[in-house]
Specification:
Elements lengths: L3 H8 L2 E11 L2 E4 L6 E8 L2 E5 L2 E5 L3 E5 L5 E4 L6 E10 L6 H5 L4 E4 L6 H12 L6 H23 L6 H6 L3 H10 L7 H8 L3 H12 L3 H18 L4 H7 L5 H12 L3 H12 L1
Antiparallel strand pairs: 1-8, 2-7, 3-6, 3-8, 4-5, 4-7, 6-9
Helix pairs in contact: 1-6, 3-4, 6-7, 7-8, 9-11
Length: 277
């Protein structure tokens, strides 16, 4: 079976950039800036975390994930402190990244809930505190490994009730989702997707809507438009993009794009240029 996470991460990669490793004492603020998320590893606490009116108290080794920009503040004992490693996360396509959209604003999990995380944490801190060549590159990759472990845990734990990760965790729906991810240009019918999932047409449609929160057709349109946005940001011509994501003409893509994003591709590109100016 095709790896459901590999296809998603290949289309929408994520890169980590470590910015802290070691003791954190007193009060420290992390600002919401640059469209970045953060991933924090807490090897030793206790640690209080404040964000947007919410508060967390971390007493055991844990991971703390902010997939979207959100200012937060750490408060630890001024003398004893907390042992932490922190990295910025840059998701390809930013807030439009389907992984970002599938995650809550804040996710805090004990390491014991994530299979294999203890080994990654031990190696990450060993490398982060050493002065070996390639240290930063290796620590960045380890943060990315940990994010994959978190996504896997979210899919397989059954804790996510609705959304992309819930669909990818479903034993049958995930086959249809991977098929759409792998071949977005294919003219998928509901019957074909149901057959890929090994379900009847009606059972598939109902289960998909309940798990993913949208119809298969709406999901496919959103996936195609997301890929189109990705390609347009790279400067590819609209006609070529339309062919690649399953629309027979740039006019057809423009209609689907506007239905999903509320503006035409050209308007969307202009809005991004204005935002960057």
């Amino acid at each position: 079976m095709t790896d459901r996470l590999a296809v998603l991460l290949e289309r929408y990669p994520v890169a980590a950039d470590v910015f802290h490793a070691g003791a954190l004492c007193g009060i420290h603020q992390v600002e919401a800036a640059g469209g970045l998320g953060q991933l924090h590893l807490v090897r030793r606490g206790p640690l209080e975390v404040f964000h947007g009116g919410g508060t967390l108290r971390i007493e055991e080794p844990s991971v703390l994930l902010y997939p979207r920009p959100l200012a937060h503040r750490f408060v630890s004992d001024a003398e004893v402190g907390a042992d932490m490693a922190c990295a910025h996360l840059r998701f390809d396509s930013g807030a439009s990244n389907p992984i970002v959209r599938a995650l809550p604003d804040v996710l805090c999990l004990p390491l014991d809930a994530i299979p294999g995380a203890h080994g990654v944490l031990a190696l990450l801190f060993e490398e982060a505190l050493a002065q070996r060549c390639g240290r930063v590159a290796l620590v960045n990759r380890l943060f990315e490994v940990l994010l994959i472990q978190i996504l896997r845990e979210r899919m397989e734990s059954g804790q996510v009730q609705v959304g992309l990760l819930a669909g990818l965790g479903h034993p049958r729906l995930r086959h249809a989702l991977v098929a759409m991810h792998e071949a977005p240009a294919k003219d998928w019918s509901l019957d074909e997707l149901a057959a890929v999932a090994g379900m009847s047409r009606s059972a598939f449609a109902n289960a998909f809507r309940d798990a993913v929160g949208t119809t298969p057709g709406q999901y496919l349109q959103g996936w195609r438009v997301g890929l189109a946005q990705q390609a347009l940001r790279q400067g590819r011509p609209l006609k070529r993009v339309a062919d690649d994501v399953g629309y027979g003409s740039d006019a057809a893509l423009s209609r689907a794009f506007k239905a999903h994003a509320g503006m035409s591709p050209r308007e969307w590109l202009r809005s991004r240029a204005t935002a960057r100016a």
